[in-house]
């Protein structure tokens, strides 16, 4: 549970850390969209190189970001197995009424790589951007929509708090599991249905803990007379620099490569 990297923040003074949060949010969104543009393995060369360069500039290793995949192993393997058996094509091996095909193997591996890159790309955003800065960036990007009644500040605050509390809730879940295992609870034996049923007792204390944390956070904000939205001052004003422009140029090369791999090659 402690291996989740999405929502965590590692303080630093790297080139990626110093980028404007709006730049990182836009680039992350563009990166996610471009991953769905790619339709062959050759196209993945561009996002992999992009992530490698970003990791080098940020000082955060790819190995550390890949740790966030451990809680998602079940989803990744399920995605692979579904594609392996459900995609029709040339048969490699028969398992009863199901067939393992070359096309299924190709599609399953392709989808796994896409999921890995999605997790790594989104993790890099939160690992290099503090929650407060991320809130300001999201609010600034949503500000034009306030004219049509969109509560930009409230949405930005909720999204940031949700991201920030992902690792906190996972750590709380880990503590509850260990406490119940010390009292004789068994979460590892039995089939998948029994394991799912054994997790039900975790939900009540986890929800109680989550509501208690939410109440404590609300009281802390209220006691400090926190008021968001208009007329709220900031210690640091967001400002884009030449480094942000260079980041957008690098992203444009990534986009050109991904589009070329789909439509020209």
Automatic annotation (TrEMBL):
Function (record text): Transmembrane (T) component of an energy-coupling factor (ECF) ABC-transporter complex. Unlike classic ABC transporters this ECF transporter provides the energy necessary to transport a number of different substrates.
Family the entry assigns: Belongs to the energy-coupling factor EcfT family.
Subunit structure of this chain's protein: Forms a stable energy-coupling factor (ECF) transporter complex composed of 2 membrane-embedded substrate-binding proteins (S component), 2 ATP-binding proteins (A component) and 2 transmembrane proteins (T component).
KW Transmembrane helix (keyword) present: yes
GO cellular component, one term: plasma membrane
Provenance organism: Caldanaerovirga acetigignens
Name of the featured protein: Energy-coupling factor transporter transmembrane protein EcfT
TM stretches of this protein: 72-93, 105-127, 245-264
Membrane topology, record value: Multi-pass membrane protein
GO molecular function: transmembrane transporter activity
InterPro entries: ABC/ECF_trnsptr_transmembrane, ECF_transporter_component, EcfT
UniProt keywords, alphabetically: Cell membrane, Membrane, Transmembrane, Transmembrane helix, Transport
Subcellular location, record wording: Cell membrane
Pfam family, one: CbiQ
